[in-house]
Amino acid sequence: MTARVVTDPSELHELYSRDAHLHLYALIDLEEPYWSASTWWRNGDAALGLVGLPDGATVVYAVSSADPSGTLALAAELSPQIPPGLVTGVTGIAEVLRSIGRPIAWQRGYHRYHLTDRNRVPSVDESVVALGPSNVDDALALYALAPGAAFFLPAMLSDDTFVGVRHDGELVAIAGTHGISDTKRVAAIGAVFTHPLHRGRGLGTLTTAGVINRIGDRADQRLNQPGGCAHDPKREEGGERDDRRIERARTMQTPKHKR
Description:
Layout lengths: L3 E2 L3 H9 L6 H6 L9 E5 L2 E7 L5 E5 L5 H11 L6 E6 L2 H7 L4 E12 L12 E3 L5 H8 L19 E5 L2 E12 L4 E9 L8 H13 L7 E4 L6 H4 L2 E13 L8
Parallel strand pairs: 4-5, 10-11
Antiparallel strand pairs: 1-2, 2-3, 3-4, 5-12, 6-11, 6-12, 7-8, 8-9, 9-10
């Protein structure tokens, strides 16, 4: 094996800080509670991590803008150690895994956006309310309307970033962060979801703006959100799209060959 296990998060911090807005998730994953529950490998500027999440699941992070092709090669090399589940990687990661016999349940391409002009973030009114751990049942009920449409873990509500909009007492729109680092001053906006019967009213834009306003000065003007949302942060919220696409896929258990 040409890859080595990384034991010092500071060397990965140096690698990912070169292109911080593309690597917000990685920068956050280098802190607790993620670091001690994770394993990271590196070969030159190619890097891959098996990231342990608060709910006990493991996800794969295989993005390195410094060496995309090397990171794909590293994923192929480490494939026997990659468990079934969610993979975030450079474009081509799903095809690489598929080519070496890993079944893929689904794959999607994404663009990343980063906030460059906070002055263009719209203000929000009193309809946007802060959410926390006590609202977990309402959040789970809303996300359950379209399983898999938005990535959400109940532990995310403890980040003090989530907001929502209610209609007749029912939570109908929500947004927050997949992670935030106060020390690195970065945040990854995600878990944006609107009730199907309430779409087309701008609630996705409203709640995303509410998250940015709630984060305030905790993070610099480098916020992140996958592309493909109902609204375009580049147009509406002072964001710019990074045209280096990433890919997400869900791998399945490799079937055992019958004798």
